Structures are given as structure tokens and as C-alpha cells.
Amino acid sequence: MAKKTQNTRAKQIAAVGISAAVAAALAGCGSGRTDEGGSGAGLVVGTTDKIFSLDPAAAYDNGSLLVENQIYSYLLNFAPGDTTPAPDAAEKCAFTAPTVYTCTIKPGLKFANGNPLTAKSVKFSFDRMVSINDANGPASLLGNLDKTDLVDDLTVAFTLKVANDQTFPAVLPTQAGPIVDEKVFPADRVATDEEVVAAKGYSGPYTIASYDKNKLVEYQANGDYQGILGTPKNTKVSTKYYATSDNLKLDLQKGAIDVGYRSFTPTDIDSLRADSKVKVTDGPGGELRYIVFNLNTMPGETPEQKLAVRKAIASSVDREALATGVYKGTFQPAYGFVPAGMAGAAEPLKDIYGAKPDKAAAAKFLADAGVATPVTLNLQYNPDHYGSSSSEEYAAVKSQLEASGLFKVNLQSTEWVTYQKERATDGYPLYQLGWFPDFPDADNYLTPFFAPNNFLQSHFENPGISAQLTAEATEADPAKRVEILKKVQTDLAQNFLPTLPLLSGKQVAVSTPGVSGVDETLDGSFKFRFTVLSK
Predict the structure, then answer these.
(1) Is the dihedral of CA 269, 272, 274, 276 positive or negative?
(2) Residue 192's pLDDT band (boundaries 50, 70, 90)?
(3) Is residue 334 located within the same domain as residue 258?
(4) Both 401 and 253 in a single domain?
(5) Distance CA 373, CA 369 (A)
(6) Residue 425 in this model has a pLDDT that exceeds 60
(7) Where are the beta strands (DSSP E) in 106-233?
(8) Interstrand relation of 375-381 and 430-436 (parallel, antiparallel or unpaired)
(9) What's the CA gap between 381 and 378, in Å, rounded?
């Protein structure tokens, strides 16, 4: 499969979300504490998320995002507790024409290595992101960006392909937006983690003091940072990586680490809520778990038969059983493409296919299209990226589908690094993905999935859906925009069904006594910031 290109999305508003990740990593030895340095030092965060890359051009996952949030600055970012983009490295940003968004950068900024951060750095960062267009990176977020021009030493102008883009300001704080040093980052390739650590071509609130990938990363406060995240409350923070949530939970209960963030099993969370030695903090929802259909390789001889198979699957799964039986209520059934509670959310899958399995409806879809049963489904899932409950979840999905008598499911699992590569090269006819949004807007659950050249690379494209996505993303009237958002979801559910939403969930973090600030960072921006944490 060819790499993603940006010009195929000229009619679309860019908003591609994070391939949601709850990744298991290699466990480090010892507690990982760095308590030297006196008051305010040595806070330790534990996680099972895996770092894919420190180079923003190749980083499109939550494990990498956790690091990016600490070491990179952005033109605009989200202040803790807020979901409105505000100046970070920028002094101000505004539309200066319907297709031109202009940002003025704060004077005197510099990278952690001492090099100046100027408008040239910003232009380089965005040009590089689009040019490299790494298959595992977030370049598709910039699908509506036509070009980036230097106005002067402190000013850049983004020319957009589609006017009145309501989402572009919110794209700037995403994984497509970190500003990198043009003097140390290669323009035409992805930098290795070792190169990023050594060159210090970043300018966020922290620098990396030591780096043992997916084992232990130690951070030191960056005194030159002048952005919206403020002065770090802890001068030193470490991130310790765990292979499983079992050890993460154990270290929290022993007080060996201070905060655990992603990903605990439902059983872990139930247990930790009852443990007086720790505090469980819930943040706004937004996570979506779903099945992707590769429209080229999934079962069915014709597009009509393939659609019938998708509809029959939609009529056979029991989301409520997954939410309660597997996830013990930590997830909720998802009957729409946008999670409930967000402006524009709808539940067309419940209306069309029902809240409970309907074998008769599923059989009719297949019979009407001339599909012989049982249909063999090769369904792939990932055991180390979306939490250990994925195995139980997909075993349940297999059981539900086969209980209808209409399907024979070959269930296979692959670890994340291989999974990412194989799914992007038509390796899987049906496969699991999860999603955390780049920014809190319904469009971020639609355009990334269903626009031409979508990040799923599922081969779905439809001019009518594309037109509706453009219409919602450029509609300034909130009420009219909600109407369009609901209509496009109904159209997708009834006539196309390129993905099958299953579950939606919320953010959860666990901390030990004396730690504060966790609630400040668990907000609708879905960015976990170390700057607000203290003990």
C-alpha cells in the first residue's frame, strides 16, 4: 500500500485522532525513584503505555503522546482543565482571511539545546511533518493545510485548502503540532529516539535527563519554558513502564510509585477503589473501541455482500454483555460513531440494528445478499496495546458471533509493533482498534475514519459522506452543525458501516496519598501533563 498523501483530502477538513493505545511495555527494575533534589522532586508515574517514537513525525499513539506532552511546545495548547486551544509558543493566532490562519510567536524562545525557536522553526516543523508523511505518523491531521509561509522572523501563515475550518486551531495542539529544532532534526527522515534525546531539539516544560526506552524515562524541568502549561510543580519526574497492570497496581499499593496512568484492568479498578491507600480519579470519557473492516479483503464477493456481512455482524454483537461481563461497567456500550455526551453524538446503530443481538435480522441481511453461511471471519486483535482485557473481549465477540450460527471466527492476536505494520498493508480483513481523540470535537471521530485516505486505510471513500464531513466541519452555527453530525452518522450506519463501534470509556488514573493535580490534567483535552502534579 502506498503511503498516505495529503492532496487526496483537499476536500476534507483535517482531524485525525489518535489510534487509541493502552500499550504494555517492558518492566523496569526497582522503583525508578529519583528522590534526590529536595522538595518537589522525584515524582514517579507508572504506565503500561509503550513509546513508539520520540519523533513527532512518526508518533501517533498514546505512549508517544505522553512523552510529547512533556518535552515539546506547540503554537497552541490546552491549559490544564480547559478544552479551548490557547497560546503556548505563540503569542497570538487568528484567521486573517477565510483560508489563512496566522500565528505570531513569542520573542526570545529557545530550544532546550539553546538554539532559537523562531517562525522558521515552526515552518520547518509543519513542512517536515507533511513531507515525511510517515505511515505511522499524524501527518493526515494536516490534510487541510495547503502551505506554511514565513511572514517574518516571528510570524507564520497557514494557508488552508478549505475555508472556514472550525477545527484547524484545535489541530495545532495535537500530535501533528510539536515544534522541533530545524538545526538538529533531519528534514527528510524520522529521527531515532537516541538522536532526539541527544540533540534536545524540543522546548516543552521538561527535558529528558535519561532514557531507557519502555523501561524508565527521567525528566528534568526546563527553566526556559514560557508556555501555557506553566512552571512544573516537580522539578524531576520519572516514568516507569510495566509489562502488565498487575505490577503497576502492586507498586502503587506499596507506595513504590506515586501515580498510575493507563492501563488498569476492570478488576484492578474495582479493587483499587476499595483500597484506602490510593485514590482513583475519573476523567471525562472519549475512548472508543471498535472493529475495522478492510473493504478490500473482508468476506463477500461483491460490495453488496460485504455490506451484508458487516450488517449481520452489527446485528449479532452484544455490547452490553461486553461492557458488564468483560469490563465490569468501566466501559459503556457504544451505539454510535461519536461517544455519548459529546455535542453531535447519536446512536444510529441501536436504532437500525438493535441494542441486543437479533439472529433473524442478521440472517436476513446475509440471505438477501446471497451470502452462504457460516461466513468465515478472520478477526485480529492486539493483546498488548489495548489492555489485557482485549483477549477476553475478543473471545467474547467470537463467542457471540458464532452463537448465531452464521459465522465461523478465526481469532488471532499480534503484538503492537507488528500489528501496526500489518494492518496498514492489508494484512487483516477485520481487526481491533481503539481511539482517544486528538481534541474534544465530534469531527475527530468522523473525518479521521471516513474521509478519503483515512488513517484506517480501510479503503472506504464516499463522495456523499465526504461532502457531509466538509459541511459539518465548516458550519459555524452550533445547532446546524449538530444536525449535520447526526445525519452523517445515520448515513454511515445505514448504508456503509465501515467500522463497528463496540464500547466507549473514560480516563482513569490512580495516585497515592499526598499527590495532587491528577484531577487537573484528566480533562477533555486528553493530555496528561506532569506540570500540575505535585506531592
Answers:
(1) negative
(2) very high
(3) no
(4) no
(5) 11
(6) yes
(7) 145-152, 155-160, 206-212, 216-221
(8) parallel
(9) 10
H or E stretch at 310: helix 303-314
Cα 202 from Cα 64, distance rounded (Å): 14
* Contact indicator for 483, 345 with CB cutoff of 8 Å: no
Contact in structure between 457 and 463 (CB atoms under 8 Å): no
Domain holding 374, by residue range, is 284-506
| 306 inside domain | yes
Measured in whole angstroms, the distance separating CA 220 from the mean position of its chain's CA atoms is: 26
Asked if 305 and 369 touch (Cβ cutoff 8 Å), the reply is yes
Same domain, 178 and 293: no
Q: Using pLDDT thresholds of 50, 70 and 90, give the confidence band for residue 476.
A: confident
Q: List pLDDT tens digits, range 37-56.
A: 333 348 999 999 999 999 99
The label of the residue with cell 508556555 reads 227
Domain count, the chain: 2
431 and 352 both lie in a single domain: yes
CA distance 187 to 216: 29
C-alpha cell belonging to residue 529: 501533563
**351 & 422 share domain:** yes
Do residues 246 and 335 share a domain?
Answer: no
Instruction: Tell me whether residue 38 is exposed, middle or buried, using C-beta atoms within 10 angstroms of its C-beta: 0 to 12, 13 to 18, 19 or more.
Output: exposed
**Amino acid found at 473:** A
Question: CA end-to-end span of the chain, whole Å?
Answer: 49
Q: Report yes or no on 193 lying in a domain.
A: yes
Contact 251, 57 (CB under 8 A): no
Same structural domain, 499 and 520: no
Q: What is the pLDDT of residue 35?
A: 33
Q: Over 70: is that where the pLDDT of 3 sits?
A: no
Cα(86)–Cα(270) distance, integer angstroms: 37
Residue 524 maps to which CATH number?
3.40.190.10
Domain membership flag for residue 7: no
In tens, the pLDDT along 205-254 reads 999 999 999 999 999 999 999 999 999 999 999 999 999 899 999 999 99
Please report whether residue 352 resides in a domain: yes
Q: Are residues 350 and 274 in the same domain?
A: no
The pTM score is 0.78
